[in-house]
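So, who can interpret the following?
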Amino acid sequence: MLRLPWFEHRTPGTVAEAAKILAGEGPGAMLVAGGTDLLPNMKRKHQTPKVLVSLKGVSSLKGFSNGIFGAGLTLREVVENESTPAALRQAAAQVATPQLRNMATLGGNLCLDTRCTYYNQNYEWRQAIGFCLKKDGQICWVATASKRCVAVSSTDTAPALIALNANVVLSGASGEREIPVESLYKNDGIDYLTRRPDEILTAVKVPAGWQSTYWKLRRRGSFDFPILGVAVALRLDSDSSIQEARIALGAAASRPFLVEKASEYLKGRKLTDEVIAEASALIANRAKPMDNTDMDLYWRKEVADDFAGYALRELRGDDMRMTRLRIARHLV
């Protein structure tokens, strides 16, 4: 049985108090909200904080008003909120299991650790191969000549929020700042967030007016992390031509990212079969998966074209319910 290591547990009542603790404790402290990812990682010695700063008692993180989601809202609460945009609701609803969604938070999912076949193992397994570049080792076993860790971003909500042109609010000892969701991430499997050590992700601001959807590829229809996430958000004119488009990919690199060429290509066009095919090809061209998650990487790149097409056809108005059901039950 894997056991948690010893740690101190702090329970601040405000964001300011939590930020002060983080600033005072330095790199030995980590935030914990739902704990659904951090605590298992601590058992496997991926993270070894001396102090855990719990955000459970910070009530200001659990509110919702006018498109502003508190980062402490559970994923279940995000799903059940009638004002949640479709892409964010679909992304949150497909994270893990109902039990974990009852605990996991929106902020926690946005800050989720990157994943890799050679990293997400127990301590003894990793020790047997001499560890890896992400933790305790010197070599990236996925790309042995690489000086950068290529562990993959595994958050579902981030690509959905990037497509929705959302911002996050970060509060720290030195004040508060607001940045686009895509700016929260770096393309680095180790140092993957731009959030400063003393900062807390407190809220997500989601603008209205988008039609959106999120499609997730995983081996099983529940529980699994994404091995591909495609999020699309559109603003349409009265004649159904596309006024603005934003398309984001997840689980295809160390960060979720906006597919700018495909987004630009769609502007001013209608979602004909030909336009959908061309946009899907542009999206798939930006998917460059590495051999460090589930399934064959070449197949995962090919299926990016299909999933982009599913998303665009759904926003066109096609009935994609059977396709979603087939994906949930078996791979397509």
